[in-house]
Amino acid sequence: MGIASSMLTQYDIEEVQEHCSYLFSQQEILALYERFCQLDRNAKGFISADEFLSIPEFSLNPLSQRLLRMVDGLNFKDFVAFLSAFSPKASLQQKIELIFRVYDIDSKGRVTFKDLLEVLRDLTGSFMSEEQREQVLSHLLEESGYTRDASLVLDDFIKILGKSGMKMEVEVPVD
Fold it and tell me: How far apart are CA 87 and CA 104, in angstroms?
């Protein structure tokens, strides 16, 4: 993929669309490419963790360090694929898969009570005590039919969050 937006060919656009399951229009992909090029300050063809942190909304996110693990070194196709979970067209399952990857701290395909606790700690900071966090998570797991000792896989996350009706959307401004 080229360095300047004029270098993005129709073939490139269609390839990216296919890579992200057609969750973005061709116009949105061009807008994302322009943003990608702005972030890729050294025109290396990928975005580093430091470049991602230059996005204020990203750097202020309490989960930014976890997200950085997922996005550091992304090329344009993978950048769009990552953002596709935030598309209004993305399915609930696609959104849950991203959330699972955030919680799966060691990338082993399993989320433990300890992993859940760490993420909740990142999200709540000093607003909740450790005891409160443990109580909330224990209650949530029990309501879903799990115990603190359970290791949750993606299907478990889908079962727990699948009925939540959560929204996780970002608008891609298109000029």
Answer: 22
